[in-house]
């Protein structure tokens, strides 16, 4: 599909881009594209790390039994002493 493109075609495309965006906006455009690529890459790494953590948690490794410590028991809701409620 792109095998018929030559160097001249690439130069024409670059000239059209330069005319559309202007020389002053091209560095800002390149910077924003680089920042977007960095954010995308870091998010992909984070998703991969989250998947590895989830896989490690769901593996067949036995978990310690819940002994009802304060950190695992929800507090009781407060009851009102007001008889009108």
TrEMBL record:
Q: Which family does it belong to?
A: Belongs to the TatA/E family.
Q: What is this protein called?
A: Sec-independent protein translocase protein TatA
Keyword set includes Cell cycle: no
Per the UniProt record, one Pfam family is TatA_B_E
Localization in the cell? Cell membrane
Gene, per the UniProt record? tatA
Q: Where is the composition biased (Basic and acidic residues)?
A: 76-85
Tell me what topology the record assigns in the membrane.
Single-pass membrane protein
Organism taxonomic ancestry? Bacteria, Bacillati, Actinomycetota, Actinomycetes, Micrococcales
Q: What does this protein do?
A: Part of the twin-arginine translocation (Tat) system that transports large folded proteins containing a characteristic twin-arginine motif in their signal peptide across membranes. TatA could form the protein-conducting channel of the Tat system.
> What is known about its subunit structure?
The Tat system comprises two distinct complexes: a TatABC complex, containing multiple copies of TatA, TatB and TatC subunits, and a separate TatA complex, containing only TatA subunits. Substrates initially bind to the TatABC complex, which probably triggers association of the separate TatA complex to form the active translocon.
Q: Which UniProt keywords apply?
A: Cell membrane, Membrane, Protein transport, Translocation, Transmembrane, Transmembrane helix, Transport
Provide the species name. Answer: Microbacterium phycohabitans
Segments carrying the region annotation (Disordered) are 48-85
